[in-house]
Amino acid sequence: MIERILKTTLTLLLMLAVIQTYSCKKAAATAAEEPKPALAGSHAIIPLPQSVAYAEEVFVLDNEVKIVADGQYATAVNLLNKDLSQLAGISLIVSASASGKAIVLKEDPGLSPASYEIAINKDKISITGRNKESVFHGIQTLRQYLWTASQDKAGRKITLKAVVIKDKPSYEWRVFNLDVARNFYTKDYVKKLIDWMALYKLNRLHLHLTDDQGWRIPIPKYPGLITEGSSRPFNEYDLENIERAKSNPIYTIDNRFVSTSNGQKVYKAAYTRADLEEIVAYAASNYVEVIPEVDMPGHMYAAIKAYPWLSSVNAAGWGKEFSWPICPCKPDVMQFAYDVLDELMAIFPSKYIHIGNDEVDKTTWESSPECAQYMRSNNLSNVGQIQKLLITNLQNYLQSKGRKAMVWDDATEVGVNPDVPVTYWRDWITPNRALANGNRFIMTPWTWFYLSSTPSDEAISTLYNFSPAQRFGNLFDDRIDGYQACVFTENIPSEAAFEYYVYPRLQAFAELVWANNRREMNSFVQRLKTHLKTMDKEGVRYKVPGFTK
Ligand code: ACM
User: Quick one: 494 and 380 in the same domain?
Assistant: First the structure.
């Protein structure tokens, strides 16, 4: 609660700062901005491509058209056929060659990294990508181009305006972060989220698998993490959600995860290893990489509840704001951490594993004789250095297995090595040490990028218009690898609530991270209207933005 009040106050202060810096925004824009593509209403593509140039002729897409592909594009072809079937009863076959009209998919390593081009004339739609992933992105663009084409359901044909679209992303890291610990989302629902991420060319899913309120991934050597750690008696957020649900049913807690034990309501949920492997494989087929996070050493209440020896005081509990952490000064606890990383690496093939390190209350380390001894043996002068050594040890362990660690920016206060990417969320604290160190950043400054904040038109436009210069001057220049939209789910207890909070901020986020300097709010709002119709058809329960009415 204190944390929330602090955050609310900081948000108000930051909002004031944002309003003040709006007037400088134009001046801060660089002369090197990319040229704006055709924005006018002939297409509704989000994120906005780099360039869109129309020609006079048209391509008539009907059942005679063949798909000619130089590789395996099964996921993309299936998506395209699903859309064509819904829009106009069309289903295309893949063929080695075609004498007549065709959609031609091919790779061209000569294209610039991550780019694709779509060329439509009266005979052909060609989608050429630097690699398979870029061809996939081209198909996602074509899917959206169909939405504004002339659809003739009775005649089973779609007439597309001839066009050349050239496109590439502004940032490599286009991340969506989902907290499945506070409230849980099934494997099938995560796959549905991946569908939307792929449509908008987001390419990394940061899965926050564990937290104080629940442990969701089985680790074979520690079965208690599931038997004990995956359940909780209803907590203050659950009770708050029950209150909210009285006036708004989206806050009704998903009853698939609720049971009664000894007369008390309990929330319990977890994935199996097979579930997680299915998510990873599905994500990979949609060019989304899943980056797992087990948040250590803080945010471990659920694990410590199952195994009290994990903490310095052999008990789960809370400090002033945050829960007591696990104790890296005990060899068995370090072994636990390595065992957890082993299982993460066995399930998730991602190069990066997120090891958390946010919000660590170190007071239990201060009073621990084991930590005092550990500090003497390792020449450490304060408990911050215990956390720093933990990060180095975990980083080295991952590195020895060919993987890399990443952390939340809180870790940079105790010091992290320069090659660890930092997920920067605390926009009220400048990460001076990491900036001086040369670390690279995934930006998710809380005020703008936490989609778990109250959804509103203002939240959409504030996110859409974010630029680092607006808030941070040139501090982060050339140090940003990408952006991350975060959904922490304390007050998002159902799929309906998730959709109400996330959409269409996800579309605004996607345009920011893919199209960056090409953004233009008026054009986005126009294009978004078509996307709202698609979400209507798909039954997505988004918060209707006032500015699209
Ligand atoms: C965070 O929101 N504690 C990363």
Answer: yes
CB 492 within 8 A of CB 498: yes
**Where in the sequence is the domain holding 118, given as residue range(s)?**
51-167
* Amino acid occupying residue 451: L
Q: Is 359 a catalytic residue?
A: yes
Per residue in 428-439, pLDDT tens? Answer: 999 999 999 999
Q: Helical H runs in 246-382?
A: 273-285, 301-306, 331-347, 363-366, 369-377
343, 359, 499, 511: which is the annotated catalytic residue?
359
- pTM reported for the whole predicted model: 0.93
Please check whether residue 407 is in contact with residue 354, taking contact to mean a CB–CB distance below 8 angstroms: yes
Task: Return the structure tokens found at 169.
Answer: 């992303």
The tens digit of pLDDT for each residue in 151-182 reads 999 999 999 999 999 999 999 999 999 999 99
CA distance 94 to 79: 13
The answer to whether the beta carbons of residues 58 and 161 sit under 8 Å apart is yes
Q: Tell me the C-alpha distance between 309 and 326, whole Å.
A: 8
Q: Atom 2 in ligand 1: which residue has the minimum CA distance?
A: 425
Residues 349 and 295 in one domain: yes
Residues 146, 15 share a domain: no
Nearest atom, ligand 1, residue 410 CA = 4
What sign results for the dihedral spanned by CA atoms 396, 397, 401, 407? negative
CATH assignment of the domain containing 79: 3.30.379.10
